[in-house]
Amino acid sequence: MRHLSFLLVPACAAWLGCGAGGEPGTSQELQDGQSHVGRDTTGGDGTWIDVPVTEGCSPDGGTPTGDTVLVTSTTRFHTAVGIAERIDDLSASPPEVLVPNGAIFTRITGSAVDGGYQFSGVPSGAYYLKAGSSYVVTDERHVDIGSNRLGRPDTAFSTAAFSPVQLNLVGLAPWMPWQSNSVPGTALQVTSKQVDLYGGVDILDMDPTGQTSIVSAGSQMWVGTGPMPVFEADKGDRIVVNQLQPMDAGTLPDGGALAYTTVVRSLEMGALDFTPDGVTPMPITGVMQPVPMAEFPIEWRLPRYTARASEVHPTATPSLPYFYVTAAAHGLSDGWVGYSGELLTLQLPRGASYDFTRRLTYGNPFPSSWDAVGAVQYSFRTLQPIPGIPGGQSYLTGTFVTYDRLDNLVAQPLQPRVSPPRELSIDGVPASVAREVGTASPVISWLPPTLGSVGAYRVAIYRFDPETLSGGLSILRFYVPGSVTQVRLPAGSLASGNIYFLRVAAMESPGYDVERKPFTYGEPLPFSSAEAISSFFTTP
């Protein structure tokens, strides 16, 4: 579910989110340090502070009986001609089942069967399914940990994440320079209808201001979807180049100028052969053409967001509000799959708290079989002291997001549909208290939010590196149904003597089945989430 990560990064210029294709089958980068335990292990009463750790995740009437669990991984490749499915081999990183048993877990190893992994001796009730560095709390007897991808299933991928570019474009709208976050400049984005690609082109050897034709041998393409695909002409692989141009959006309450960017010109190149190697320039050549334009109104009730700042963290303040229109490749009948770039981007000033009403215009070069998705987000931040670094501080952020079909999103005022979880705690102590936790296997708990119908929660743990002052990648993730309000971290999940922080997102998405298909989160629309965040904490 890549779009979550792209849209949570301003300017979408870097891949800082979860593993490719969502969370499934992420590499076993985190060793959990557990030894195997026999299935007859006993001890403890399965409770924490007199509440079962998996309270609320008891079997429902439709859950198959028996002690067998089947785990499969089906990758679904979405193209213009339909969906191709591939059953993935899980033997390189096999899933595991952990059954809560008081303060410990009984680990059950599975065996490979046709189409997946099978686990026997799994008692009825909730268990933790481990896939890579993600855990799913579920009581289902069949779970698919596969993902949805864009592009043909036989696509080959290079090892390159960028490429030099030989640029020769004519028919551009006059290139506009960047002035500020409120008045952005022209940008070039690239995508493809045949292979999985999203990125942009930076012009490094000239100032293109005012130009309508650009010839450049010193440009570079960056890619946000992971390694660049290999383009094969005989399979019809093409590149789409979009020019995003600033459009006037009137003035801000303080009288300052406001603009947004939208696609105004586009080019789909002919089929090409190209193997990215980081050295050979990719040719991007052709005549840019005007694109169809459409108009829509928005009524953005920003005070409804800013009033909830303290629900993100007691010391959080409003940060950046964004509104996007993005392309949904091949339509939304199977959910919003992959990421194909922005059609419109609007950023308001930090801390904006007023009703924002406008009519906006956006360009869309894609076929009518594709859909337009509207995305609204508001991030909040808190400046926290870094443990062990005198005077050191770092911002931690939590975000409200809503994605929906554009027509549906703007048919009503833009405001939160779900609020953050309440009373986020670590071992019963408020998570906003910076401290050393008492164990490397703590219990994360929370209460349901006051707004929204929560179907699932996502708990993400981040390790903070005090040397680089970064903590952009989650190292541990838990997906739990909306009836569950706590998780225990299995022993060895957190390394000794490290700095961490966490986010817990409440998610409202009626079409999302967290227990059966956990790694499709954010794809069924509508989707809304709101995060509560902790302060830094350290492990003994």
Could you walk me through the main structural features you see in this protein, from its secondary elements to its overall organization?
The chain has 540 residues and is mainly β. It has four helices and 37 strands. The protein has a 22-stranded mixed sheet that branches. Strands 8-9-3-12 form a four-stranded mixed sheet, with no helix packed on it. Strands 29-28-31-34 form a four-stranded antiparallel sheet, with no helix packed on it. A hairpin with a 7-residue loop joins strand 26 and strand 27. The model is unreliable at 9-65 (pLDDT under 50).
Main sheet summary: 22 strands, mixed
Question: Would you count the extended β strands for me?
Answer: 37
Terminal-residue CA separation? 34 Å
Instruction: Work out the helix count.
Output: 4
The quaternary structure here is: single chain
Topology of this protein?
Elements: H1 2-7, E1 47-48, E2 51-52, E3 69-72, E4 74-79, E5 82-87, E6 96-101, E7 104-108, E8 111-113, E9 116-119, E10 127-131, E11 134-138, E12 142-144, E13 148-150, E14 162-170, E15 187-191, E16 198-203, E17 214-223, E18 240-251, E19 257-268, E20 282-287, E21 289-290, E22 293-301, H2 303-306, H3 309-312, E23 317-328, E24 342-347, E25 355-363, E26 371-385, E27 393-405, H4 406-409, E28 422-426, E29 429-430, E30 435-436, E31 443-447, E32 456-464, E33 474-481, E34 486-488, E35 499-508, E36 527-533, E37 537-538
Parallel strand pairs: 3-12, 4-13, 11-33, 14-20, 30-37
Antiparallel strand pairs: 1-2, 3-9, 4-5, 6-7, 6-10, 8-9, 10-11, 14-17, 15-16, 15-18, 16-17, 18-19, 19-21, 19-24, 22-25, 23-24, 23-26, 26-27, 27-36, 28-29, 28-31, 31-34, 32-33, 32-35, 35-36, 35-37
